Amino acid sequence: MARRGHDVEVLTSCAVSYVDWANIFPPGTSEEGGVTLHRLPVHRPRDDGRFAPLNQRVVYGRKPVPIYLQRTWMQEQGPYVPEITGWLEERSPSFEAVIFFTYLYHTTWAGLPVASRLAPTLLHPTAHDEPPLYLTLFDTMFRQPHAFGFLTEEEGALVRRRFGVRQPSAVLGVGVELDPRGDEQAFRRRFGLEERPYLLFVGRVDPHKGSDELYGFFTTYKRRRPGPLALVVLGEPVRPLPAHPDVVMTGFVDETTKQSALAGTLALVQPSYFESFSMVLSEAWAWRKPAVVQGECAVLAGQARRSGGALPYRGFAEFEAAVDLLVGDPPVAAGIGRAGRRHAEERYRWDTVLSRYERQLEHLVGRGSRRPLQPTR
Questions:
Q1: CA dihedral 198, 203, 208, 213 (to 10 degrees)
Q2: pTM over 0.90
Q3: Fewer CB under 10 Å: which end of the chain, C or N?
Q4: Which helix (DSSP H) or strand (DSSP E) does residue 199 occupy?
């Protein structure tokens, strides 16, 4: 949006990791790529000794959960940034629109009601069908924004079903670079893959992202289908996987290494049950790579159906059949990858996504002011 001539300011915390919310960046205001960036300190890092049992009680315990206990859970979950409400109280009237990303965390829960009294607000829930979404704590919060921006049709349907929202909304998606750069051979040399075909998982190595199930499915597949096929697991190891001769774990890598991994993969595997979009799926399609995706996730199944660029699976038998097809029939695999690329070109070019976004913001601003959103330079 800044590159299109709009003045954009970002308000965020000093933290880097959602695991502990420890302050890493210094507080204050800076300029980053033409965007004014404001960082506020987190009051205290998350203490798992307090949060873990509370999370089990509130999110997974028996219902109903008293509202005071839900509020305590929200503060302990964090990031708890006490200054955010005062900052928004003072600054919100100066903005044409105030936009919040992700429904789940304290910054949105505390900040949205304040900003919505003072300026037009847009919420990107990035919601998926997970236990916290059903806490009554969020019932009032989802009535606060003046409009919603959804990443997929399935996310919009979920939010409407859960909260009965009637505010204006649009399915916006996320842009993807369609001219990616990567060095497949450098990636293969670095991680000892040589000429082996490999499936690729990209993301947090976390049971909540499906990494444990994928590991079990893949190692079972290799027992039944011995051969050179490998699984590359690329991402931060929240819970590391056991060592295995056919599983290559890279740890966290930079963007160039990720793109190089995508350049060489036979197919992306996205095993997560909880997604509102999956950016890496679009990135794989930019490389014309097919994907194998968790069919129990409505968002991933919907993206597979609309694009023709992915094979959804439910359980091991369908996973095995999908991998067999991609390994055994390269022309079919290539055709699925091309279909994904066409879908990304049609829906997720940055210019296309930003044009949708501007129309949504024009509608949001125009509801109050009856004038279109204007670039500032």
A1: 0
A2: no
A3: C
A4: strand 198-202
